[in-house]
């Protein structure tokens, strides 16, 4: 499993994942399923817990991501079966990452997906871009 890719997948979601209430209604996202499985092991390791908290507070900081990478590598090296389990969840998350469902209904509704920068959006009948 590519631990660096796993850290990259988790990092932007960690602030929400750390604040999520266990047992929230609805089907957890693939990233949440990974975190739900990792959480117990991370809590058992103070250094790993600190690394997760640092990345949650600074998701784009490469130094904190590297520390989290090292902590996850230790965890996975000690328990290859657990690493394989997380690897399967990670593969599932990667497979679903390319799917975006957007629904817009009603007069002049707008649905936007992906990275959108710049441009003009108009819901008026007479506006010409």
Q: How many strand elements?
A: 0
DSSP summary: helix tally: 6
Rg (CA only): 19 Å
* Proportion of residues in β-strands: under 5%
Which segments are poorly predicted (pLDDT under 50) over 5 or more consecutive residues?
none
Main beta-sheet strand count, sense and barrel state: none
Fold and architecture overview:
The protein has helices spanning 3-10, 14-19, 30-43, 46-57, 62-78, 80-96. It is elongated and about 65 Å long. Helix 4 (46-57) packs antiparallel against helix 5 (62-78). The protein is 57% helix and 0% strand. The chain is mostly helical and 129 residues long.
Main features:
57% helix; 0% strand; 6 helices
What is this structure's SSE topology?
Elements: H1 3-10, H2 14-19, H3 30-43, H4 46-57, H5 62-78, H6 80-96
Structure summarized in a few sentences:
With about 130 residues, the protein is an all-alpha fold. It has helices at about 5-10, 15-20, 30-45, 45-55, 60-80, 80-95.
